[in-house]
Every structure is written in structure tokens, then in C-alpha cells.
Amino acid sequence: MRLGPGLLVTAAFIGPGTITTASVAGANFGFALIWTLLFSVIATILLQSMAARLGVATGQDLAQALRANIQTPLFKSLAIFLVISAIGVGSAAYEAGNLSGASMGLIGIFPNVNPQIWTPLIAFLSAGLLYSGKHKVVENALIVLVILMSLVFISTLIMASPSLGDILSGFTPSLPEGSITTVLALVGTTIVPYNLFLHSGVLAAKYDSKSDLQKVIKQTNVDTGLSITLGGVITLAILSTASVAFYGTNAGQISAANMAVQLEPLLGDAAHYFFAIGLFAAGLTSAITAPLAGAYAVCGMLGWSNDMASTRFKSVAIIILLFGAAVASLGLDPVAVIIFAQAANGLLLPVITIYLVWLVNQKSVMGKFTNSFILNLVTLPVLMLIFGLSSYKLIGLIF
Question: For 328-378, what is each residue's pLDDT tens digit?
């Protein structure tokens, strides 16, 4: 089968933030936290497959389904506020990091070119794709970038040549001293709330009631599983490369910005350029998917059309992109907006996952495509993890 919508989720969660988190995990704790990545990938596959099935079975994205099925006015207003705050405002706040990450990659590839041109250029390219309003154009562009990311980071891993035994040892759960924050960060960069809106929205627009929904859902489950597993492999490659290069070396502060340069002494010039290309692809994919997800969430919750070609949809996406471009280009400090968005995300993630699980268990919503008992049972530890993660994030922001 042809992979497609699932790769948009991969494109969305493999961004500069994921590169930084995976690099820090490898540099500080070696291979010890690979088990966290495995758990996160499994949890993400479960939740994204539910969101995808909702989109196919109902013809609605998650935001539209929430608006249609939350009957209590107070809860509906609260849901609208949380979704727009966490997904709409959050996408705008994080967009600056996506554009900056893509720019850093190009600076690493073209060090002699004026670095100030890259952010506006990337923003213009992203805006052009979004403004086209064509699913196929955007999807194909993202698929190419995901393939590029995969080749780059896996090639860099091969250059680093980690021991297979060391990698396998990381699948045994352990919590090295001081690792809890990194564990939660790895989970948080993989299970991303706005991907639930993005995935359901793309699939709701792609299929209608005339499609063979049973067949489509089976294909979607395969697409989701393979695509998110690929994202996990990319993250594993970054973590493992950082582990080989920096674990136990006191390499200093590791981030997406300096990872490419810091790899050079160990792996040579080729690795530097490989990693910079990967950083550019990761930043650009997230720079396209964040406004797209924000537009699905905002338009769905406000009762507007989720057609990518509609004026309102394109306007919301472009506003999110422009905010990120302004912060990245002008050197503005988005910390206050990011803290607000993180707090909203901390509240939204458990609420939205509970609502998602509730929706996909309603025959009145899903018809014959409701969750099985086994699937609900497997989802329980994921929900417990999400509640723990959100509580930790909120406590950290408050104190």
C-alpha cells in the first residue's frame, strides 16, 4: 500500500524539539532511555489510529467531532477555549522554533550565505504550500522530506557505528539518576496533541461515505503503524548517534543548533552536513504541519469549514505561520506565549485523550467501528502515563 497520511504525523513530531530531546537523552544517559521511546511509539500508534479511524468513520476531524458531541454548554465552551489555546496558540508559539531549526540546518549547509535570508525564505515556501489548499501537494512535499530525514539520520547512525548490544540493552526499563525530566520530554515530543487533530482532519477530508470504510480503516492502521514506527526509528538514530558521540565525554550543552557541528570531530565533515540537512528537513516539515494542525483545530472548534482550500482555513494557517516567522526573524521572545501554550497543553492532553477514547467507543458516533474491549484495556496504561505527564508539566510550570 502507499503510505501517506500517517507520514504527516511523522513529519509533525520529528522537529527541532525532538532532535534536541533525543540528542540530550543520548548524550546524558547513553542508550538507557530507549525503552521510553519504544513505549512512546506504541502509545502514539494507539492514539493516532483512534483519531484516524474517527476521521474515516465519521467524516469529521477531532475538533468537529468534539463540537458536535459535547452537549453541555459549559463543557463545550471549555473545550473550545482549551483547544484553541493549546493547539492554535501553541502551534503559533512553537512555529518559531520550527522555522529557526530549519534555518539552522541551512546555515550549517551554507555557512558563507547571509543567515538572515533563510527564515523568511522558509516561511515563504511553507506559506506557498499551505496557501495552495491542495492536500496532495502538501502531502507529497512532506513525504519527500520525511524520506530525506530518514535517509540522513539513519546514514549518520551507520557512520557512528554503535554496538547492537548497547542498543538492545536500552530496551530494558531503567531510570538513571536525574533522567525523569528527559524521560517525560521524550514522551512529550512523541505523543503530540495537535497530531490527533491533524491526522483525523486529513483523513476526514480524504474519504467519504462512498468509500469502503472497512478496507480504508485497515489500510489506515497499517499506514499509521508503519509511519510512526519510522518516526521512532529516526528518533532512535538521533539518540544513538548522540550516545556514541557524546556520552561520558562532558560535551557540554547539546541542542539541535550545535549537534551538527559537535559531531564533526568524531564523524568528519560528512556527518556535519548530513545532520544539518536532517535538521533542515525536520524544521521544514514541522513548519508546514504545525499551521495545518492549528487550522484544523481552530476551524473545527469554531464550526468553520475544514477544507484546506477555504479562505478561513488558509487564513488561520497563514496567521500561525506569520507569527512564528516574526518571532524567528525579529528575535522576539516567545517565552510567555510558550508557557501559556504549555499550560494549556498540560490541561488539554488528558482531557482530549479521554474524549477521544469516549468518542471511539460510542456506536452513535462510530457505528460498527468502535473500540474493542482489548484495545480499551491496552489503552489504560497510556492514559495513566498521559495524566502523569500532564500533572508533572503543570506542576513544573506553576512551581
Answer: 887 766 667 666 666 677 777 888 898 899 999 999 999 999 999 999 999
How far apart are alpha carbons 255 and 116 in whole angstroms?
20
Question: Whole-angstrom Cα distance, residue 333 to residue 187?
Answer: 26
CA proximity to 288, closest of 7, 1, 86: 7
Please answer whether residues 126 and 146 qualify as being in contact, where contact means their C-beta atoms are separated by less than 8 angstroms: no
Predicted TM-score of the model (pTM): 0.90
Closest among 320, 349, 14 to 196, alpha carbons compared: 349
CA geometry: angle at 76 spanning 73 and 79, to 5°?
150
Give me the phi and psi of 304, to 5 degrees please: -90, 165
Report the distance separating Cα 333 and Cα 34, nearest Å.
33
DSSP sequence for 228-288: HHHHHHHHHHHHHHHHHHHTTS------HHHHHHHHHHHH-HHHHHHHHHHHHHHHHHHHH
What is the full DSSP assignment across 294-305?
HHHHHHHHTT--
Contact 314, 86 (CB under 8 A): no
Residue that is written with C-alpha cell 519504544 in the block? 38
CA-closest candidate to residue 15, choices 220, 328, 285, 330: 285
| Contacting residues for 252 by C-beta, under 8 A, at least 6 apart | none
